[in-house]
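Lab notebook, bench 4. Still working through the backlog of constructs that have no structural model yet. Next entry is a single chain of 387 residues. Request: give me the structure tokens for it.
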Amino acid sequence: MADAFIPFSQRKLVALDGVRGLAVVAVMFTHVQTQAFPLPHSLDTIFGYGWFGVDLFFVLSGFLITGILVDTRECSNYFRSFYARRFLRIFPLYYGFLAFALLVFPHVVAADYMPTGTDRWLCVSYLMNWTALAPWHHHILNHFWSLCIEEQFYLVWPLLVLLVSSRRLLPLVLVLEVMVLTGRSWWVYHHGPSVAVQFATITRMDGLLLGSACAVIIRQFRIPRSTTTALFWSAVLLVSSYVLGFHLVGAAHRQLFKQSVGYTILAIGFAAFVLYSALTDGEPTWQQSGLCSRTLVLFGKYSYGIYVLHFPIFYFLNRLSHQFPQALHQAHWFAYLFMAAKIAVSFGIASLSYNFFENRFLAMKDRFAPVYREAPIASTPALLQVG
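Model written out:
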């Protein structure tokens, strides 16, 4: 009976750590493409889709954050609890690493690969993704753009969840998604694809919104077993449809496809995948066995640190690789070995960061636990039906 008073958002779903791990590994694979050692063309093409991991992160973030907000909307410390706990999870590593990067990297990173003065202030203010409105400058902190989108989402979404009734939250989310899709598609078809569309918050909210929709659905509706099973295959079909469509439209129109309907297709597919993963957590299926594997769960546990740190780590290891004999640069076996080394080093440093730095702040989250006016009801209709 004790579980009946544990909100769903406070339950540990191991499969979602696996989803995080899958997302961050995918992102690392796409950044491996920048290494000095060539991979086979087929593998290089597959790794080129690793950016899907960012969209999967968006869906998962929308699902988890909206779930927390819905479960705690009646708490007396609703805003204080949410923002304090987010602060302790995100800011120490982000600003700690940012300070290190801005102080040390100018001495060891090529000048043309450092953030400009404007970029640095936008990184500090979590607005770096809006540099897309100016000429885009590739630098060693480029990957922070997605963190900026999530922070901007965290800034406004708690207020909306609090102001909108539970009954109207799902329709609101769906209306917002339709507005994002139609507005972005209209813009792209009339003005063409652009870096601004790729990185701006208002054009990349599909995953966050559809993840939020899943958080509401899992709490308000009973989901039949047949539907739950279909969710996984729907996810596979939608992601495959994106890949197929991307290749069928031809090189000249691929960015148009991607930036118009492509982001939405992926977001719907990943939303189905996240919903399936949450609903079947702990079940003896091959999908859950994969998601709950120790390796993938550990990557998920350290995913935030891996994401923040891996891109600069890859840069410095690529610099180191220039010292290797030229013959190794042509050997595929060494390319695989070097790729594995980059991932392993990123994992190792992120695990040290988590256990010896981030954990000191995470331990303080209990001081800001939600304070319920009444005992919360934990089990959702969906889980009661499926579990």
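Notes after review: The chain has one domain: 2-386. The chain has a mean pLDDT of 91. Flag for follow-up if needed.
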